[in-house]
Every structure is written in C-alpha cells, then in structure tokens.
C-alpha cells in the first residue's frame, strides 16, 4: 500500500483553479516557505524541525569503527531514514515505499555526495580506527515536502553535533568522555540545502514548499540542492510532466535566496542554543557543592 | 527520585492517537503513536477472524533496530494484546498499530538489557492507546526495580546501575492491583521477589496491601506521587483542555 489516500477530483480542481488565480490553500505566495521552527534536545545533535505541519526529529550519533579497506582515510557517514506509521497512517512499518527510497536518494546526493561533511576529518588512525557518523531521521508528522525538512534537520544536526575527543598515544587510541574533555564539532565544508518546487499546468505554475495536498495535485517536481555560495550541487527532475528549461534557471536564483534565508534561521537557532549551553555549563561549574 | 515524569497526550497530528512520555530518572523520552483500527494489507491469512491484531514497532534513536527491539516488541505485543478489547465493533480483522520511537535518552546500548526502558515504553503506548480511544479492558502502570548486591531495591535504575545490579525486575500492575507483567533478569530468591512486588505495588498504586491488622498504610510520602495518579491526571488534564468549551459553558 504505502500510499496516501488520493485527492478527490473536486479537491484537485479547487487547488488547481486557485493556483491559476495565484492563491494557495494556506494563503502563501508561490515562493514562500511555511513557518520554520528549529529546536534542540538535551544531547548534542538532537534536532527537531517543524516546517508547517511537517515535523521530524534527527539524531546524530558517532561511534569508533574500522575504516573500509579501500578507503583507509575516510570515516563512514550514513543517513538512515525509515518511514513508520507514526508520520502518516499510510506508511506501514518495516516496508520500504517509493517515497522513502526517493527521499533517501535525494538526501544522499545533496548532503553526502556533495561532501558537506568532511569524512577525511573523521579518521583517527589510518586504516585502524575512525569515527562513523550516523544521522537517524524520525518523521513524526508528515504534511508534504519531506526532502527539504529532512535536509534542514540533518544539516542543523551536523552543525550542532559534538563528538568526543580522541587522541592517539603510542599507537593507542584514547577516547575521552564528554565530561573529560571539550567535545569536538564536526568539520563542515559547506552548507547545502535542497529546495523542492512543484509544477502545475505543464510547468507554467511553479510553487515552493508544497504541503501534502499540493504535492498530490502537482504534475511534477524539481529539486535543487544549492549552498550559500550559490554552488548547485544537485538538480533533479525525476518524473512527471515536462518543465521548461527556463524554470530551472529562474528557480535556481529563488532557491539560492531561500537557502540563505534558511541558513540564517539555522545559524540563529544554533547560536542561541550554544549560548544557553555555555550559560548552563558555567552555572554547573560554579556550584558550591562541586568537588574542588 | 528526580521529580515527576512528564507526559502529554496527542502531540502529533497525523496518527489516530499519540503520546510523549519522559521518565526523569532514566532520561528516556519516548514518542508513541497508535493507528487503530486500520487495514493490515497482505497479511490476511495471519489475521484472526474475530479479533484485532496488535502490532508493535520499537524504533531506537541512533541505530537500526535489532534483536533487542524484536524481543521487547514481543513483550509489549503479548501484554497489550490482552488489554485491547479486540472484539469490539469495527476491530475484528483489523490492526492496532503501535509505533514507539526513542527520541531522547542516554540510550540503551546495543546488546544491553531492554528492561530499564520497558516501563517508559509501556507508559507511552498506554497513553497513546488512550489518546486513540482504543477500547481497553483496564489501565495499568509499570515500574522497573533493581536489586543491588547488598539487597537494596533501587527504583528506576540508570543503565549503569542496572548492569551492576544482581537482578532486575519490571512489573506492570493493573488499576485493580493485579500483576499484569513480570519480567525478571538475574539471580534472586522468592523473598526478594516478594519484596520487589510490594515495592512495585506502592510505587504504582500508592497503597500497601493491608497488613495483618487490616490497616491500609498510605506511603505516598516515601515514594512520591503514585504512578497511577500521574497517568490519571495526564488524561484528566487533556480532557479538561479539550472540553474547555463545554465546561466553561456549563
């Protein structure tokens, strides 16, 4: 099954006709994001992202492993996403649907293959041990545009995460606990984000950040992965009705603008969380009951 | 005790019922969702013709699910399957799908005992079932107790305490005071188990079963608020909140 209940014909027509008059269901402009909220949990790398009604939790974790034989300098980085019936009753647990495969593929391309995380910096001792980084995506509420929401959450998580410090002493790897030594942030080379557009009327109408109903009514989608510097690292038009080439050109500049806006929101959230943590850390340290 | 647990009902919008439960002592933060009654496709032959099938999925926070998760899913399925009134109208041949995600904790390591997390999972699924208005035969509360080598009983042990303990017990007590679930691990004798049982009863229900003189001693002070009261209050708060329009009008 793994499919949402389809829209009724009347509902689809309503959405389409409204779009032709320049009106979206929730009153947004065609190039307007839903309200984005980024919050953090207690641990490093625990991020909750709410994009409109779509919300998901990403947890980043690290582990010391042996690097692959053919890549002795690289630490593995995996993005694990499993859609469960928590996000939407249409998804059945334990069976991979089309959406899951598609989203995982795009995330892999935008974040992993664009080398957003410098995997060579994860190496501790060549060919012997390295950090393995894992991003777990838990979709808890699904209302369209999973790709962008997951992308935002993973990139925020990678920037928020701190791994334990590890040192090589006489050929031995020593890993220090989070309370023994200041944990180390990951090495992020650039901050790519994906922006998904949905197209209607053979590419004449293009909207950004569609919700679930708009996604269901659309004819095709265009995904653009782009970073703050304007480097396009992913561009796809997987299926659906054809789209004019000019859409790609004009929408890349829209995407760049949006990525800058979103990265601004992420930076602000990260900074306020960091400030809170240091404040709390100082308060903990200066307690009278602590050992001196 | 590090203060009371925190829980909320229906934090999610898409699933029929949902809950979040955070245990302060162990730090386990569980998000539960229930979809019921739903069609379970392609499993027609496995469905019981006159009853609902309960399915449980436990999704760990930072690693793929494995044997430990399957094991704890089995325990949950066995116990909750008995509580859900699967013969009510609309339920036979349908599924009650419970999904539990571990969204924050110091994490049970791969291969560690799952018993420390079991009460949090039980409470989260219980509250989610209530939020989805699935007919249940009774309510329950659960607790985990560790017995140290010196014979002390620790309530809600951390993962570290649990590995050091000689035995670990998870008990679920129904709203009528009956024992619903007993999962024990490690070496212990009958006397120890009796003591654990007594302690679990006071934690869950707040009353010690009547002594030889027939008196019922209230021991709320020692154990804090009983868990049953906590579950009740969580549900009551939600009902008051949802029916504020009606209550205010009356």
Automatic annotation (TrEMBL), chain A:
Q: Does the keyword Transcription apply?
A: no
Chief localisation class:
cytoplasm
Pfam families according to UniProt: RNase_PH, RNase_PH_C
Q: Which InterPro entries match?
A: ExoRNase_PH_dom1, ExoRNase_PH_dom2, ExoRNase_PH_dom2_sf, Exosome_comp_Rrp42_subfam, PNPase/RNase_PH_dom_sf, Ribosomal_Su5_D2-typ_SF, Rrp45
An example Gene Ontology biological process? rRNA catabolic process
Q: Name one GO cellular component term.
A: nuclear exosome (RNase complex)
Name the SUPFAM superfamilies on file.
Ribonuclease PH domain 2-like, Ribosomal protein S5 domain 2-like
Q: Which domain of life is it from?
A: Eukaryota
Keywords carried by this UniProt record:
Cytoplasm, Exosome, Nucleus, RNA-binding, rRNA processing
Protein location: Cytoplasm; Nucleus, Nucleolus
The signal peptide stretch is none
Q: Which molecular-function annotations from GO does this UniProt entry contain?
A: mRNA 3'-UTR AU-rich region binding
Residue ranges constituting the Exoribonuclease phosphorolytic domain according to the UniProt record: 32-164, 192-242
Family affiliation: Belongs to the RNase PH family.
Which protein is depicted? Exosome complex component RRP45
Organism expressing this protein natively: Aspergillus sclerotialis
UniProtKB/TrEMBL annotation, chain B:
Highest taxon in the source lineage: Eukaryota
Could you list this entry's UniProt keywords, alphabetically sorted: Exosome, Nucleus, rRNA processing
Q: Which GO terms describe its biological process?
A: nuclear mRNA surveillance; poly(A)-dependent snoRNA 3'-end processing; rRNA catabolic process; rRNA processing; U4 snRNA 3'-end processing
- Entries under InterPro entries matching the protein: ExoRNase_PH_dom2_sf, PNPase/RNase_PH_dom_sf, Ribosomal_Su5_D2-typ_SF, RNase_PH
The question of whether Nucleus is a record keyword is answered with: yes
Offer an example of a GO molecular function term for this protein.
Answer: RNA binding
Q: Where is the composition biased (Polar residues)?
A: 7-20
Q: Transmembrane region positions? A: none
Residue ranges, annotated region (Disordered): 1-20
Instruction: Tell me where in or outside the cell this protein is found.
Output: Nucleus
Q: Does the keyword rRNA processing apply?
A: yes
User: Which GO cellular component terms, listed alphabetically, does the Swiss-Prot or TrEMBL entry include?
Assistant: cytoplasmic exosome (RNase complex); nuclear exosome (RNase complex); nucleolus
What the entry lists under PANTHER family is as follows: EXOSOME COMPLEX COMPONENT (PTHR11953), EXOSOME COMPLEX COMPONENT RRP46 (PTHR11953:SF1)
Q: What is this protein called?
A: Exosome complex
Upper classification of the source organism reads: Eukaryota, Fungi, Dikarya, Ascomycota, Pezizomycotina
């Amino acid at each position: 099954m793994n499919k949402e209940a389809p829209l009724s014909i009347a509902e689809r027509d309503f959405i389409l006709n409204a779009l032709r008059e320049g009106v979206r269901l929730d009153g947004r402009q065609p190039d307007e994001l839903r309200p984005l909220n980024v919050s953090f949990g207690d641990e490093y790398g625990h991020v909750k992202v709410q994009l409109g009604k779509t919300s998901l939790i990403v947890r980043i974790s690290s582990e010391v492993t042996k690097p692959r034989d053919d890549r002795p300098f690289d630490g593995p980085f995996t993005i694990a996403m499993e859609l469960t019936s928590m996000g939407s009753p249409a998804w059945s647990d334990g069976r991979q649907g089309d959406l899951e495969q598609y989203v995982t593929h795009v995330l892999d391309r935008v974040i992993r293959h664009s080398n957003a995380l410098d995997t060579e910096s994860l190496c501790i001792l060549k060919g012997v041990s390295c950090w393995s980084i894992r991003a777990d995506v838990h979709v808890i509420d699904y209302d369209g545009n999973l790709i962008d929401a997951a992308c935002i959450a993973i990139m925020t998580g990678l920037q928020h995460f701190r791994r334990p410090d590890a040192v090589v002493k006489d050929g031995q790897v020593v890993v220090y606990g989070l309370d023994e030594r200041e944990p180390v942030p990951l090495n992020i080379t650039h901050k790519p984000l994906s922006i998904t557009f949905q197209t209607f009327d053979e590419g004449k109408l293009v909207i950004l950040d569609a919700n679930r109903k708009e996604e269901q009514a659309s004819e095709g989608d265009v995904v653009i992965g782009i970073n703050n510097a304007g480097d396009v690292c992913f561009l796809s038009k997987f299926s659906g009705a054809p789209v004019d080439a000019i859409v790609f050109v004009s929408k890349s500049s829209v995407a760049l603008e949006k990525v800058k806006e979103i990265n601004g929101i992420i930076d602000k959230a990260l900074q306020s969380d960091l400030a809170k943590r240091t404040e709390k850390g100082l308060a903990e340290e200066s307690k009278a009951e602590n050992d001196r | 005790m590090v203060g009371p647990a925190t829980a909320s009902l229906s934090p999610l919008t898409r699933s029929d019922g949902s809950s979040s439960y955070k245990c302060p002592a162990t730090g386990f933060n569980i998000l539960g969702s229930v979809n019921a009654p739903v069609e379970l496709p392609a499993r027609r032959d496995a469905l019981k013709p006159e009853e609902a099938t309960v399915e449980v999925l436990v999704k760990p926070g930072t690693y793929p699910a494995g044997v430990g998760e399957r094991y704890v899913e089995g325990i949950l399925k066995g116990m909750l399957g008995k509580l859900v009134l699967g013969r009510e109208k609309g339920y036979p041949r349908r599924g009650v799908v419970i999904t539990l995600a571990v969204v924050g904790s110091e994490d049970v390591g791969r291969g560690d005992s799952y018993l420390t997390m079991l009460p949090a999972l039980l409470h989260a699924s219980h509250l989610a079932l209530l939020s989805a208005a699935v007919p249940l035969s009774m309510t329950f509360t659960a607790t985990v107790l560790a017995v140290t080598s010196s014979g002390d009983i620790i309530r809600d042990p951390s993962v570290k305490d649990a590995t050091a303990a000689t035995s670990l017990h998870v008990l679920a007590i129904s709203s009528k005071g009956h024992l619903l679930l007993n999962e024990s691990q490690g070496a212990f004798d009958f006397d120890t188990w009796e003591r654990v049982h007594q302690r679990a009863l006071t934690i869950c229900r707040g009353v010690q079963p009547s002594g030889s003189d027939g008196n019922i001693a209230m021991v709320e002070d020692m154990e804090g608020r009983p868990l049953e009261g906590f579950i009740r209050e969580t549900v009551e708060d939600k009902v008051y909140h949802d029916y504020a329009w009606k209550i205010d009008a009356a």
